[in-house]
Write a sequence for this structure.
């Protein structure tokens, strides 16, 4: 089994007829993901990439069993579309879009929590369980089946590290990209917990970056609850103070949010620290006795 | 969008929070319309204004003119004072602190209060942490009655007074799409609670549904000649640095990783230019333009690993720039991910080399610029 998604996950695509939604649906289908339906208001009855399109989530649910949804709708429609999915009983929702107003993000996260829906994102590249299911934008060739569980804020960094691991012959059980923040549904701490509980995951690789305190919170959880080996890579060691580096949350304020403080916290929690993806691959090989 | 105090107070007044009567002053003759005694307050966006001497209590019109002359045109922490807010003085019994924010990683609004206001909240956290309290406000539920009663108890004030301010503050937060609303100090006066200061930050991501408000506020800011409001039209983050390697990436995480790798290789980046993970040939084009405007750049590394982003489109942007403007410095492009075959073909046809390995690309660009540069 894998974390959150598996071979049998039936997927609904929200915003399936948009340019990005359509392309990503095609790549997911090519990968073998079971995309069974799509929703775009006003486009019910159409077919996109061979997938039937509905006006409403509830209409799609009448015709299909759906386990998870991934959303490509514009930021302006994110709240309405997410509430519809949550109301319809979708239990796992991936929000790929950025630039959603903060108030809308909070409302989505609060409502999802109350209704028992897990939200990955917003601004998330998604989740891939190599060889089983790809619910996101991950370029397929960067990933291969295996037993390292990877969690990253940045999508691009998760691809980069996936590529390095794959080239080094190290496969992944599941790779989760959470989004650049500063607001998140699923957190690093949640992902680490899922990997600890997943029998298929043997090593946990945590990819963090400067800013905020979520790496420190994950470190606290690791120290108390995680028995599996953890490797951590924090990027932004050479980052300047006081500047957001591409992610709104990636900012060093005074001496808060530095790579050094996160590395120290994770190191104290027993994680092995890598400074580059290649070093992470090397450490994982050593842990596995290769 | 960060607001001046006078703008924040205007919004607070609209939301039902009591604020002192005041008038914005930009010319000396406008002082005639001010009743003394009055408080003259420099309108700047930086914090720590009181300590820097930006607030003056004036008993007479003469004192008012003196304060006006010393403040207007002067600077606080490098920010020029372009306007003053003249307000009636208040009979202050006690001072509190009250704010609502959206902390990083939070899933609710955070209300913070302190029975000792008037000083920076970080200081209170150090010196009198027992005076601080916080409550989570669920964005769907809003402010509950027990939360009003709790604030009243902590402030030792009338419940109805606390309700007026707390519901007003929450209304301001919600109706203006604010990410911060702060009153420091919130004064207890014989007439009730009064917001003596206002700090408000609006969410730029909500500009599309508050366009009238944002325009009105931007016009006010432009009218007093204060800091120009930057409205970014693309998804590019451009941070100038002090090295010679121009760094462009299509992801924040890989951008930061490359920054580290450049530094590990003994060189320094001239800039951090991140395009966003779902971008277009036009954005690739303008990322090159911005990076090449930086005259310290001796060579460029473009780090592309497309997920949402399409490599054919990135290649198009690079090739178009090369054709139209030329590339005055060497460019090292690492390209892989979505539509990479097509992207590499476009690059090949333009005689531009691409790399697959990030480390090799970093080695190449550092060889071009030299170490310790």
């Amino acid at each position: 089994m894998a974390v959150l998604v598996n071979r049998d996950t039936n997927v609904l695509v929200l915003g399936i007829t948009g340019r990005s939604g359509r392309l990503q649906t095609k790549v997911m289908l090519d990968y073998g993901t079971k995309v069974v339906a799509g929703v775009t208001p006003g486009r019910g009855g159409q077919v996109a990439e061979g997938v039937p399109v509905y006006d409403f989530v509830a209409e799609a649910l009448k015709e299909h069993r759906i386990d998870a949804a991934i959303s490509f709708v514009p930021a302006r429609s994110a709240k309405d579309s997410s509430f519809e999915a949550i109301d319809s009983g979708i239990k796992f929702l991936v929000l790929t879009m950025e630039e959603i107003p903060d108030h809308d993000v909070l409302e989505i996260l609060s409502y999802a929590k109350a209704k028992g829906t897990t939200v990955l994102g917003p601004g998330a590249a998604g989740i891939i369980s190599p060889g089983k299911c790809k619910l996101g934008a991950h370029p397929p060739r960067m990933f291969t089946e295996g037993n390292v569980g990877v969690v990253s804020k940045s999508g691009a960094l998760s691809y980069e590290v996936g590529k390095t691991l794959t080239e080094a012959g190290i496969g992944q059980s599941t790779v989760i990209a959470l989004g650049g923040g500063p607001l998140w549904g699923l957190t690093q701490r949640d992902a680490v917990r899922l990997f600890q509980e997943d029998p298929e995951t043997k090593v946990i690789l945590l990819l963090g970056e400067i800013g905020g305190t979520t790496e420190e919170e994950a470190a606290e959880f690791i120290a108390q609850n995680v028995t599996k080996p953890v490797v951590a890579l924090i990027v932004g060691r050479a980052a300047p103070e006081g500047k957001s580096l591409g992610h709104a949350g990636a900012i060093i304020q005074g001496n808060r949010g530095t790579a050094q403080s996160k590395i120290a916290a994770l190191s104290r929690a027993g994680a092995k620290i890598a400074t580059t993806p290649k070093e992470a691959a090397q450490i994982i090989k050593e842990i596995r006795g290769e | 969008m960060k607001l001046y105090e006078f703008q924040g107070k205007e919004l607070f007044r609209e939301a039902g929070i009591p604020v002192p009567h005041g008038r914005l002053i930009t010319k000396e003759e406008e002082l005639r319309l001010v009743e003394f005694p009055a408080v003259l307050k420099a309108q700047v966006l930086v914090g720590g204004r009181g300590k820097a001497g930006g607030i003056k209590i004036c008993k007479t019109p003469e004192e008012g003119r003196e304060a006006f002359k010393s403040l207007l045109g002067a600077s606080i922490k490098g920010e020029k004072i372009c306007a003053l807010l003249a307000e009636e003085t208040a009979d202050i019994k006690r001072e509190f602190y009250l704010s609502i924010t959206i902390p990083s990683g939070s899933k609710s609004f955070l209300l913070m209060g302190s029975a000792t206001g008037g000083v920076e909240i970080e200081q209170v956290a150090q010196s009198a942490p027992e005076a601080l309290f916080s409550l989570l406000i669920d964005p769907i539920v809003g402010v509950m009655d027990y939360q009003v009663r709790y604030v009243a108890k902590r402030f030792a004030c009338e419940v109805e007074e606390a309700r007026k301010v707390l519901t007003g503050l929450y209304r301001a937060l919600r109706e203006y799409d604010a990410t911060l609303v702060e009153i420091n100090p919130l004064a207890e006066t014989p007439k009730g609670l009064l917001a003596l200061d206002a700090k408000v930050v609006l969410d730029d991501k909500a500009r599309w549904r508050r366009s009238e408000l944002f325009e009105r506020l931007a016009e006010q800011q432009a009218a007093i000649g204060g800091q120009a409001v930057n409205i970014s039209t693309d998804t590019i983050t451009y941070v100038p640095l002090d090295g010679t390697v121009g760094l462009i990436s299509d992801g924040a995480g890989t951008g930061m990783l490359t920054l580290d790798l450049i530094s590990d290789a003994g060189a320094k980046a001239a800039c951090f230019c991140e395009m966003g993970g779902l971008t277009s040939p036009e954005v690739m084009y303008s990322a090159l333009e911005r990076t090449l405007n930086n005259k310290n750049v001796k060579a460029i590394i473009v780090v592309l690993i497309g997920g949402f982003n399409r490599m054919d489109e990135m290649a198009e942007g690079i090739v178009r720039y090369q054709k139209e403007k030329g590339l005055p410095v060497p460019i090292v492009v690492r390209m892989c991910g979505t539509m990479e075959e097509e992207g590499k073909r476009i690059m090949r046809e333009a005689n531009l080399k691409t790399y697959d390995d990030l480390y090799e690309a970093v080695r190449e660009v550092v060889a071009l610029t030299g170490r310790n540069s």
Chain B has three domains: 1-20+91-231, 22-89, 237-369. Chain B touches chain A through 54 residues (CB under 8 Å). The domain at 237-369 of chain B is CATH 3.40.50.261 (Rossmann fold).
